[in-house]
Design brief:
alpha/beta; 2 domains; eight-stranded mixed sheet; 21 strands
Length: 491
């Protein structure tokens, strides 16, 4: 999408928080989307009743034996989840094992000398009644206490063990100590496995409202819908240079890719095509490592539960962050928000509603962000001279902070669109409420400033009322937002 050019253009003074410290560009990608492999296997398994076939598939899966006892240095494990609630630890390993020199060069990485890091760590919670699931991702540079090793970044926990099983046990103990949530099962997917599964699905479709190019990761995409494969799929979930939010912007894009990957794995195109389904299953089981207790019976039971799950009830959350540029010793990293985290962990421990989860309420929740707290760019999407300027003046008149006007990527918009980053959904609802007939749309490339594309239906703005804050009950509202697997940037 073109930015701020044409008859409505002015300088755009928008600014967002500075980027986090950049790690070397050749460092391997860390992906939330790896979890789609393990989840999709469970979902698809239930669609076929061929016991012998699945028994064979199960034998192809690498197993990691984890003891029921606590990890070394961990005082005790938390109590099990209530009822049938289930918590699964999902690990993305950055090992390059099995990749040829040509593949390492193609994907802009290098041999890591056999090192192991769990730079993608996700806690998957399945509700006891299987009506919803929550995936919580942990920033790779978050400072945590690793049992037996003291305070360090969470991505180093996996490498503290002498082998894969010991590393998995250390990560499990770290997450359990941090959250107070007992981990029931473990799934690991490596670098090559992610690429293989994307290929087996025939690629994954994403939508970009604007072109995205990053020479550091090799990303070179046009605006609009497109199917990503190979190097472009890797670059999309890897890039941290196309917005000012660095790793957190990358997490937004990874969540978008994971949601699209889940939709593709559940599509009739895959489920009803025996050749595609067989190729996907064979590739998926070769890509994952599971704990020894996560057997075929459990997988099939989970699949039956997950198959009918509404994507709107699959919620993505990033562990709440207090300081994205914290220092401990001589290391720059991320300080987690203990107070907000306590709310989230308590909700998961008790299988209760997630604070701020957009999918928790069937009706539209009250507006929580005042216009004065929302920054906008206003773009003319109808081609009417001066339309963006008039709309910007009207939005300023009801309290919004307009940071520039310009022309959109096209002049054929009939409906006004409010585009927002994954963490600005509440702000977007306030804007949409002020512009009757408008709709919201996720744009994973946006940071804290929203874009309003004015369509030909624009008829003015209306003042909006923000709900009064509830009285404090000992814990402040959580400073994090959520997204769901049902959200589609091009919907």
């Amino acid at each position: 999408m073109a930015t701020a050019t044409g008859p409505n253009s002015t300088a755009d003074p928008d600014s967002t928080a500075g980027p986090l410290r950049r790690t070397p560009t050749r460092r391997i990608a860390r992906w939330l989307s790896w979890v789609a492999v393990g989840t999709a296997v469970s979902i698809v398994v239930a669609s076929i009743g061929l016991a012998g076939y699945f028994t064979w598939l199960e034998r192809q899966i690498e197993r990691v034996k984890l003891p029921a006892a606590a990890a070394p240095g961990q005082a005790a494990r938390p109590d099990p989840a209530p009822g049938r609630a289930l918590n699964v630890l999902l690990i993305g390993s950055d090992t390059r094992e099995g990749l040829s020199a040509a593949e390492l060069a193609e994907f802009a990485t290098e041999d890591d000398g056999g090192g192991r890091r769990s730079d993608t760590i996700i806690l998957l919670h399945l509700a006891a009644d299987r009506s919803k699931s929550v995936l919580v991702s942990f920033p790779r540079d978050a400072f945590v206490t690793i049992p037996g090793h003291g305070v360090a970044k969470i991505n180093s926990a996996f490498g503290k063990g002498r082998d894969k099983a010991a590393g998995a046990l250390t990560v499990r103990g770290t997450v359990e100590d941090l959250t107070g949530i007992r981990i029931d099962h473990y799934i690991e997917v490596d670098f090559g496995g992610f690429l293989d599964v994307v290929a087996a699905l025939g690629g994954v479709e994403v939508c970009l409202p604007r072109p995205a190019r990053d020479p550091l990761s090799g990303l070179n995409l046009l605006a609009g819908k497109q199917t990503l494969r190979g190097t472009q799929a890797l670059a999309f979930v890897r890039t941290r240079s196309i917005d000012s939010r660095s790793d957190f912007g990358r997490i937004d894009r990874q969540q978008q890719f994971l949601a699209a990957m889940l939709r593709k794995a559940l599509s009739l195109d895959v489920l009803l095509n025996p050749v595609k389904l067989d190729r996907f299953l064979r590739t998926a089981v070769a890509a994952v490592s599971l704990d020894s207790e996560l057997g075929l019976g459990t997988l099939r039971a989970l699949a039956e539960n997950l198959r009918g799950l509404d994507p709107a009830k699959v919620t993505f959350i990033t562990a709440p962050v207090a300081d994205a540029s914290a220092f401990r010793g001589r290391q720059n990293g991320v300080e987690l928000d203990d107070e907000a985290g306590a709310q989230l962990w308590q909700a998961l421990r008790t299988d209760g509603p997630i604070p701020g989860a957009q999918a928790a309420e069937p009706d539209a929740p009250p507006l929580t962000v005042a216009p004065a707290g929302v920054r906008l760019r206003v773009l003319n999407g109808a081609g009417t001279p001066g339309l963006a300027g008039r709309a910007a003046d009207a939005l300023r008149g009801v309290g919004f902070r307009v940071r520039g006007v310009g022309d959109a990527d096209a002049s054929t918009y009939t409906t006004t669109v409010v585009r927002h980053g994954v963490e600005r959904a509440d702000s977007a609802r306030t804007v949409a409420a002020a512009i009757p007939g408008s709709r919201t749309q996720i744009d994973a490339t946006l940071g804290s400033t929203l874009e309003v594309v004015i369509g030909s239906d624009f008829s003015g703005v209306t003042p909006v009322a923000v709900a009064p804050q509830a009285p404090r009950t000992g814990i402040a509202p959580a400073p994090f937002e959520t997204s769901t697997a049902a959200e589609d940037a091009c919907a």
